[in-house]
Amino acid sequence: MTSSEDDVTDADADALRTLLRHQASTVTVVTAPGSPPVGFTATSFTSVSLSPPIVSFCLNLGSSSWPTLARARHVAVHLLAHDQHEVAQTFATSGIDRFAAPTRWRPGPQGAPILDGTLAWLLCRVVDRVTVGDHAVVLAEPELLRHADVGSPLLYHRGRYAGLADAPDGPVRRVAA
């Protein structure tokens, strides 16, 4: 089904939220050192620049993680694997100790919590925070990274976690641009 001119509506918060449910997003967990450490699930992670390398993610200013993130010099961004629904849900839940068992993690470089078993992680130096509406856009420069050679990502689409239909675990096939 495709949209038509009859489907036009005002772009208020509810309409935008409904529209964005159609966009599949990679599920990430962002962690930062602190006492206690903080972390949250984000689907807003993206590459901003390759030269210099800069990535971004967004965080609600009302989040319990924001006070720590507002001061953090380094963060770790974890791309979750297709079978890590529980990790995503844990870090999306408010009012709990997200780092308690069964979460498996260790202190990493710069003290950033590193989650075990993720598809990939990046240690990033925060270079800027831009307040936009009720969120902060955090810009960060990757300094270290680690990734698996196989596996597929956890996605968020239409309000639920999903995976790729073909879930390739072999070598990546390059597509000519």
TrEMBL record:
Biological process, per Gene Ontology: pyrimidine nucleobase catabolic process
UniProt xrefs under InterPro entries: Flavin_Rdtase-like_dom, NADH-dep_flavin_reductase, Split_barrel_FMN-bd
SMART domains: Flavin_Reduct
SUPFAM superfamilies per the UniProt record, alphabetical: FMN-binding split barrel
Keywords: Oxidoreductase
Flavin reductase like domain mapped to chain residues: 20-163
GO molecular function, one term: riboflavin reductase (NADPH) activity
Name listed for the protein in its UniProt record: Flavin reductase domain protein FMN-binding
Native source organism of the sequence: Micromonospora lupini str. Lupac 08
